[in-house]
Write a structure and sequence with these properties.
binds magnesium ion; binds thiamine diphosphate; 319 residues
Amino acid sequence: MPLSVKDLKELYRIMLLIRRFEETAFEKALQGAYANYHGGMGQEANPAGVCHGLRRTDMTMITHRGLGVPIARGVSVKDIFAGLYAKEPSPTRGRIPVYHMAEPSLGVLGGTSMVGSVIPLAVGSALATRLAGRDDVTISFFGDGAVNRGDFHEGVNLACVRKLPIVFFCENNFYAKSTPLAATTAGGSIVARAKSYGIPGERIDGNDVVGVHETVQIAIARARTGEGPTLIECETYRWTPHSTAGDREFARTEEELAQWKAKCPVMRLEKRLLKERHMTEEEIRTVDEGIKQEVAEAVAFAEAAPYAPADAAYENIYA
Ligand SMILES: Cc1ncc(C[n+]2csc(CCOP(=O)(O)OP(=O)(O)O)c2C)c(N)n1
Ligand SMILES: [Mg+2]
């Protein structure tokens, strides 16, 4: 079904919210407000396009790169900043910040620290929904750095053998830290691997949120109706260094970054909304101002919030 004007405006709002969130989150980490942060700026169309239209009970497992997925799934930026600051009001009571951030009631199952290790867990989520007799789908987000780990092959293979309801969504930003994809990855592309598992594979433009959404919708429909997994390779680019820890960029050039910035996913949709007269410059400014205020209030909330009492560390543990 083609996207309505309402959908386009919502995709724009979510991407802009993620953009403003990411700008502030990166800056605050640089100032030492909380731990190292792996910014997601430039990659906003991925979480926005994938998560738009998901059922609340569909599951998403995230990577270390940015917090666009929780935002797109409806976790408030207040809660997310509280998480970054490790404060009590966060979804995990300040226990697990950044890439472990989870809010299962909104379908955010969190992520893991070891690159790629999230993939078999996402497969487990898909298996769990199958065993429970539900027709929910799991989206497994991972970076290009994950595809040469055993976890990728073990996870994708099992999901294919069992035809599990999962979409493998690779955010290919062409680098794992400072290592270019071409230096580590055989076979010409990531999507080429779909063939060896006998599943559909799509390589898409990660600056086109509408294209991301439409491709993922097809994969979700397949997964939901029992036809099994799809592998999507989404070409994207991070606008910030690997993290706020001062990582050196050995291979990326200023020219390359400028080329990708010129293809900004947020601006691309903004131009379309203006050109097709779905929004005016003034309306866009109003949306942006509201979002900036929301982000500023979230930071103030998180900074003023208390830490959880020490005893809370013993909650929700098995032994
Ligand atoms: C198994 C493992 N090796 C190394 C690291 C250190 N590390 C953290 S993020 C990262 C790069 C991951 O690259 P990619 O999967 O492409 O995601 P991106 O950072 O580009 O979004 C590395 C090497 C890790 N966390 N886990
Ligand atoms: Mg990468």
